[in-house]
Amino acid sequence: MKKMPGNPRIEGPQIWCVIPVYNNKCTVKDVARKCSAVIKNVIVVDDGSTDVDVLSLLSDVDVVLLNHETNRGKGQAILTAARYVGEQGGDYMITIDADGQHNPEDIKNFLPIILEGNLSLIIGCRDFNTENIPGKSRFGRRFANLWLQVETGIQIDDCQSGFRAYPVKQLNQLSFRGRRYDFEAEVLAKAAWAGLELKTVPVGVFYPIPAERVSHFKPFLDNLRLSLIHSMLVGRRLLPFKHRRFVNREKVAFGTLLWHPVRLLKQLLRENATPEGLAISAAVGIFLATLPLLFVHTTVIIYVAVRLHLNKVMAINIQHLCLPPVVPVLCIEIGHYMLHGYWLTDISFETIFSQFSYRLLEWLLGSLILAPIGAVWVGLIVFFTATFIKKRINSNG
After folding, report:
1. Any domain includes 264
2. What element of type H or E holds 122?
3. ∠ Cα 300 186 102 (to 5°)
4. How large is the angle between the packed helices 181-193 and 74-87, nearest 10 degrees?
5. How many CA atoms within 13 Å lie on the side-chain side of 240?
6. Is this model's pTM higher than 0.70 or not?
7. I need a surface site. Which of 51, 109, 160, 188 has the fewest CB within 10 A?
8. pLDDT per residue over 132-166, tens digit each?
9. How far is residue 126's CA from residue 75's CA, in Å, rounded to a whole number?
10. First to last CA, the chain
C-alpha cells in the first residue's frame, strides 16, 4: 500500500471500502464522497433500492457500483462485495453503513491493525457517550456482546457495529446461513472459531433525532432471525467437534493450570464475570439441574459451561438450589397434574421410588415447565444482585 504525493487518500489495491445501501437516498452520496476522499477503492452495493436510482445518484462520484436487482439483505451485499474485492486481489475490505452514522475519516483508525499483517477481523467500537443514542441500541449492544462471549469466549465492546474490516480471502472461504442483519452476528462467531483475532478500534457515531432517523431493522422479523442464528451457533458450539481453522492460536492447557491451583481459581472466578455473564451462567446451571439427568448433573453442567465459556464456579454451585427433595418433587407434582389432571397427594418413599418409572416421566414433563421458569427467575436475581454489587464497588473504588 502507498500514498501518492499530495494525495491524502489510501492508495493501492490491497484495501477497499464497501458501502451496502438500501433506500438511503438522503445520505449515501455524502457517505460515498467522504469515503472516496479517504480511500481510493470504494464499492457501493445497491441492495435493490427502490427510493432512488443509485447509479444515477452516484454518477459523479468515483466509486464502483455493484447491484442486486432485489433486496437480498445486508449480509449478502457484504458477501457480494467480498467476492468482487477478492477477484481484484484485495486483502481487506472495510464496511461502513450508508446511513451516515459513521465518520468515513475513521477508516484510518483500522490501518495500524491491518498493517500488522495478522489475520484479524476488526470492529469499529462506537462511542456511545453522545446524544440521541436509543435505549434499545444500548441494550441490544450489551445483549449481542453477551451472545458472542457465550459462543466464542471473546469479549468485545460493540458486536453490533457495522463499521468493520474483514480479511477478504478468509471471509470468502467461510460459509454462512444469515444474509441480513443476522450475518453480522454469525460472521463474528465463525471468524473466531476459524482462528481469526477479533479486535476493536474506537470510532465516532452520529445518531440524528428520532424524527429524522432511518432504519431498515424490522424488530420482529430481524430479532427472530437473530434468535435463530444465535440458537444455531450455540447448538454448534455444544457439539464436541472441531471447527475448521485458518490460524491456530496458542492456548494455556487446562492440565497445565491444574498444577497452579491459585492461578486456576483466579481464572475460574474471572471468566465471564460480568452481571450478564454471571446471570446466564446461573440460568444455565439451574435449567440443567432441574432436568432429570440422573447422577450426571454436575458432569453435564461442567461440559456445557466449558463449551459455552460460562462462569463455571457459578454454574456448578448454583445447582445446589435444585437438590432433592424440593425441586424434583415440584417437577413430579407438575408432571402428574399434566398427565392426570389432579395433584399427587400421596408423596412418600413408596410413591416416589417403588413407582420410579412412572415418576421419571412426570419429573421430565414437570421439569420442562419448571426449568425455564426457574432459570429466568434465578438469572434475573443474579443479574440485579451482581449489578448492585458492581455499582457499590465502583462507587467505593
Report:
1. yes
2. strand 120-126
3. 135
4. 50
5. 5
6. yes
7. 51
8. 677 777 887 888 898 999 999 888 888 889 999 99
9. 20
10. 47
The grid coordinates of residue 38 equal 479517504
- Same domain (yes/no): 227, 266: no
Instruction: Using the predicted structure, report yes or no on whether residue 194 has a pLDDT greater than 90.
Output: yes
Across-strand partners of 375?
A: none
Distance between CA atoms of 235 and 134, rounded to whole angstroms? 31
Three-state DSSP class for 198?
Answer: strand
Separation of alpha carbons 252 and 261, rounded Å? 14
Q: Examine the fold and report which residue of 205, 238, 271 is the final residue of a domain before the chain moves on.
A: 238
Number of structural domains found in the chain: 2
**Could you tell me the CATH number of the domain that includes residue 187?**
3.90.550.10
Identity of the amino acid at 85: V
Positive or negative torsion for Cα 7, 12, 14, 19: positive
Q: Which of 12-26, 108-122, 262-276 has the lowest mean pLDDT?
A: 262-276
Domain contains 207: yes
What residues contact 260, with CB distance under 8 A and at least 6 apart?
none
Cell numbers for 375: 432459570
Among 289, 328, 321, 292, which Cα is nearest to 305's? Answer: 289
Three-state SS across 212-261?
HCCCCCCHHHHHHHHHHHHHHHHHHHHCCCCCCCCCCCCCCCHHHHHCCH
Q: What SS3 state is found at 185?
A: helix
Domain extent for 100: 15-238
Say whether pLDDT at 370 is over 50. yes
d(CA 354, CA 370) in angstroms, rounded, equals: 24
The cell for 82 is 467480498
Q: Is 248 left (phi over 0), alpha (psi -120 to 50) or beta?
A: beta
Other Cβ atoms closer than 10 A to 175:
7
Q: Which of 293, 318, 327, 290 is nearest to 385 (CA)?
A: 318
Cα separation of 347 and 143, whole Å?
Answer: 42
- The full length of the chain comes to 397
Residues in CB range of 24: below 8 A, 6 or more apart: 49, 51, 98, 99, 100, 214
